[in-house]
TrEMBL record:
<dbReference type="GO" id="GO:0035999">
    <property type="term" value="P:tetrahydrofolate interconversion"/>
</dbReference>
<protein>
    <recommendedName>
        <fullName>Serine hydroxymethyltransferase</fullName>
        <ecNumber>2.1.2.1</ecNumber>
    </recommendedName>
</protein>
<comment type="pathway">
    <text>One-carbon metabolism; tetrahydrofolate interconversion.</text>
</comment>
<dbReference type="GO" id="GO:0005739">
    <property type="term" value="C:mitochondrion"/>
</dbReference>
<dbReference type="GO" id="GO:0019264">
    <property type="term" value="P:glycine biosynthetic process from serine"/>
</dbReference>
<keyword id="KW-0663">Pyridoxal phosphate</keyword>
<keyword id="KW-0554">One-carbon metabolism</keyword>
<feature type="modified residue" description="N6-(pyridoxal phosphate)lysine">
    <location>
        <position position="235"/>
    </location>
</feature>
<comment type="similarity">
    <text>Belongs to the SHMT family.</text>
</comment>
<keyword id="KW-0808">Transferase</keyword>
<dbReference type="GO" id="GO:0004372">
    <property type="term" value="F:glycine hydroxymethyltransferase activity"/>
</dbReference>
<comment type="function">
    <text>Interconversion of serine and glycine.</text>
</comment>
<dbReference type="GO" id="GO:0030170">
    <property type="term" value="F:pyridoxal phosphate binding"/>
</dbReference>
<feature type="domain" description="Serine hydroxymethyltransferase-like">
    <location>
        <begin position="5"/>
        <end position="394"/>
    </location>
</feature>
Amino acid sequence: DHDLRTADPEVYGIIGKEKERQYKSLELIASENFTSRAVMEAVGSCLTNKYSEGLPGKRYYGGNEHIDELETLCQQRALEAFHLDKEKWGVNVQPLSGSPANFAVYTAILKPHDRIMGLDLPHGGHLSHGFMTAKRRVSGTSIYFESMPYRLDESTGIVDYDMLEKTAILFRPKLIIAGASAYPRDFDYPRMRKIADAVGAFLMMDMAHISGLVAASVVADPFKYCDIVTTTTHKSLRGPRGGMIFFKKEQVLGVDLETSINNAVFPGLQGGPHNHTIGGLAVCLRHAQSPEFKTYQNKVVANCRALAKQLMDLGYSLVSGGSDNHLVLVDLRPLGLDGARVEKILDMASITLNKNSVPGDKSALVPGGIRIGSPAMTTRGFTEKEFKAIADFIHEGVQITLDAKRQAPGTKLQDFFKFIASPDFPLTDRVLD
Ligand code: PLP
């Protein structure tokens, strides 16, 4: 029984290279973070060896006394971290990740082909909220359910709640989904609750991106208005990769959410829970209740504001004109540039962010913006001063891209600019997380 280095030098070597990349680059992908050593230790533990289908105290396998203790502790901490009354709210900590958590909710409360409304992916929503294009039902969510996305008001970059209301009245969805992957503002939960009530729909919030901010109460609290709240655990919450589903412990629209959601996760969609992840998640949820965590989340928001301000001072146009949370969306189209080329140029300088659609984009293949997030570098100790410097670095990258674009045809730089937009260079729209 050898350690990794001896047992598999190849994988050991790849991990070493990835560690170095993470260490040396400016990590600005809004959905990523650096989890703690303690979380990593739990995730890399013997918990991975155990099968425990079922819930604490009701397992299909023996030998689960410690796993029961762990999962119960994780559930308790999850409710505490989000300031929830355990008489009124329950949680399932077994979803393997964010997309499976969302799909579990849909299968729990909907019948195949029931109608759903989530924010359109090109306007910041997530694939698993019902994404489809004119040609193709892309996400399983849009294959098995009938999806009518709502969108932003393109003139303000804010969710068009009036249009959502009008459409909901005609479409009569059974479920309305709040939450996004690339939306720099808070959702108007009271308004969405009203719309859901008017049409007899469930209201769910997918707080994947902002769950750390919600736990620290630095953004609005979705639990006050929603029936169900889902999340990933590895973004601003800074835990291991995983998912959670919170549900009201009551009948909503005739559905017992607790029973139907628990059954949808297992045996509906999953088998054995990933106990090593649940271990890491329990550790993360203990961190999430500390004063340091609150300070961290306040810094995430302050750093993002500093970044937004410097970008605007440099003349950039931000979708919605700023940010309330951990990310900004820069619209590069006024410069005659797209996000794909800028992402590539910045990547060469070890500045890691992603190209992203912005409202009004004509082509999903060459999106007009970039998404920049503050959680990861805030974990690395960056302050507002460094985030201002990040804006300057990004500006330099944009200038270099513009420079390349302006070169005379036939020059090396102009060839390079063409290459990074050619079919040889994969320009896929990856607004997926
Ligand atoms: N929901 C939102 C809002 C997301 O941004 C993501 C991101 O990736 C997911 C769900 C899906 O999570 P996962 O990638 O863990 O399936």
